[in-house]
Amino acid sequence: MYSGWGVYLPYSMKDITIVNNAIGGRSARSFTDEGRFKSLISAVVSGDYVIIEFGHNDGGSLSPTDNGRTACGGAGSETCVSPTGAIVQTYPTYLTVRTTIGLSFNSQRRLESIIPFPTN
User: Fold this and answer.
1) By C-alpha distance, which of 26, 29, 9 is closest to 82?
2) How many folded domains does the chain comprise?
3) What is the pLDDT of residues 18-58, one digit of tens each?
């Protein structure tokens, strides 16, 4: 079952097909690692609107345990290695790389984040 605030969109947006792919407890990293960005991108067609919001599940620490959601600290292309040996990207990288992929579909994209992008 899908979740998030997207479940309420059909009540305020009539005559528009809403596809809500939100899964509770996901972060930009876990959404990527689970292949959900690929599934989303393969379903988008020209003219679609894509709204993506992450932030509150992206925090935490990579050590001593890895929750599978935490991103590497930084504002660019930095990477970290998790305790499980996974290569972890920064929060901005997870979002910008995945939305850049969608550019070829000529879709309208909107990124929502409750976490400000770091500037350091």
Assistant:
1) 29
2) 1
3) 888 888 888 889 988 998 888 887 787 777 777 777 777 88
In the chain, the amino acid numbered 5 is W
Q: Sign of the CA dihedral 48, 70, 93, 30? A: negative
Q: What predicted TM-score, i.e. pTM, was given to this entire model? A: 0.75
For 12, half-sphere exposure in the C-beta direction (CA atoms, 13 angstrom radius) is: 5
| Cα(100)–Cα(102) distance, integer angstroms | 5
| Residue 119 belongs to a domain | no
Range of the domain at 82: 5-113
User: Which CATH number characterizes residue 28's domain?
Assistant: 3.40.50.1110
Within-domain flag for 41: yes
